[in-house]
Here is the input.
Amino acid sequence: MEKPSLNPRTLFIQAGAANVATRPTSHAKQTRQKGIYAALASAMFLGMTPIFGKQAILLGAEPLAVVAMRTSFAALILFVGLFLFARRYLYIYPAGLLGCLLAGWINGIGSLFYYTALGRIDASVGHLLYSLYPFFMIIWLSLDRQSPGRLTLFRLVLAIPAVFLLTQASSGRLDPIGMAQMLVAAALYALHIPINQRVLFDMPAPTVTVYTLFAMSTVVVPVYLFSGTNPFPGGFPVWEAIFGLTLVTFLSRLMLFMGVKHLGGMQTALLGLSELLVAIGFAYGWLGERMSQLQWIGAAVLSLSLFLVIFEKPATRKAYTTGWLSWLHPSDGAMK
Here is the structure.
């Protein structure tokens, strides 16, 4: 009696499942540690972006110019580096490329909403609303058959009031349009993470980062060029700030996708909330600002939520045949 033949895709899935099942526990712990370090590094660099971005704007650069230049320059730097020293990272299978393009377009639109919203509402209120993106992450990941665990939900419950307390330094004006724009930005940022997470199952973080950044550039650069704003901000201090913003954007994106690859999208998102601690720390040490009692309480609660990540179970790979993103997998020919 002949055994039924299996197509390459089935063999690939079964081999990957067997590999995960037999992987040593120590290796899983090391992988999770890499993800934690990468996610925290991403949050650190993201916490520095408001400083460079605000500095560039105060020196005369238009907000759309800031977001366009920092995204396109970061993509160009990474592409040149990979082309010169690690061309193997430029390979990507067609569905993965489409996934990166989709994630980049979504995040590019979200960044336009973000910077437009900051023109209407105070940064503290904007940070609070944008930090709600883990809530949207739960929705998107649930649609992709990746329901969060109880500890993850508990950490999220701790994080949300902590974020609220951290933003109580000043009272901001309420603008319904600006607040709605920031919520849209948060939802779109949350949406691009699970899309990239699927691609990261098979592709390294530098590959996903470069194609996602290029896709973002195809959105923000045309909007900036057709907006009628000053095409080239002048003055060395402005370009110095833009270069700093470009550098932290490049590093934060690379670390973000490394965290998603090794830790999972939801855990990386929760650790990303430590960006608020970084921003407050820079404001405390660099700008001479001081935290209120409520902010100290919020910082302590958020730190507890971040600390609980050590008790989270390692992220598991989902089969390609489930979820609304199941089409993001290598073709049969790529698996042979």
Remarks:
- Residues 1-6, 8-24 have pLDDT under 50 and may be disordered.
